[in-house]
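Slide 14.
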Amino acid sequence: MLLEAGRPILGGLAGRTFVADAELLRRSAIEVGLVFHGSEVRSPRRHRASHPFSPFVDPREARTRVLQSQVDVLLARLDTFRGPIFVSTPDQLVDVPRATWLPVVVDLDGWPLQPSILGPGRRPRFVHAPSNPWLKGSDHVEKVLRPLADRGLIDYEVVSGVGPEQAAEAVRRADVVVDQLLLGLYGVLACEAMAGGRLVLGHVGDALRSRVPAEVPVVEVTPATLAETVQRVLDEPDWARGRAGCGRSFVETWHDGRRSAAVLAPFLGRASEVSSEAAGQAEDGDEERGSRDA
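Slide 15: predicted structure.
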């Protein structure tokens, strides 16, 4: 069983944390692993020390203080956890060094490749779909893209407060998807957009890029460089189309599920061994009870 985000899976049966759940499940011969997705283990203290545009730059900010407190508690619990830990984006390996990267998975059938329409005389559509505007740097995106849209140079759509299908349709309509600018990562949104052949702009950062043994085809931008990169998209559509064309093969290689299955295989194999052992013990117990009854 994989427990996500450090949360219990059994309600209040064993307690309010994953720790008691893990012990109870192990006593039932169920192998337990943990999966994390980002904010629950990302230390604001550590992040602002290495990211100049970190959203956690002010340690006194209320959201930062709450998040730091929660992360400190969770990371302390991980020190005593016996079992595999997986993280869905490589940046989390900074905070959980003994974890293993479990790449996010994109359903390629649901994201058919659509050739980009970027070209001379065409007005490109930019889409920004932040799950959390504070963490994604949406105010910086707005400052750059809104004036261009007002001048009629681009179409600009902010996707917020809608269901997953509506958000996906907006990404499919895009020529350019602007991902987050502050965190130094890429995730599901970027992978879906790249799978569909969209150009993705975002802050991945050198540290994360060095952990992926292939070039991540997200065009690197920060709040300081977004404006000039958007201008390059407008001025050099051939360059933009070329970069957009690299995304599909990257997603097919790293995020179609095969590598994630390979990462989980050792854990699932061990879980199978534990289950078989438990089943064998149960059968032995049944035979012993049958002999006594006879």
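Speaker note: The chain is about 45% helix and 10% strand.
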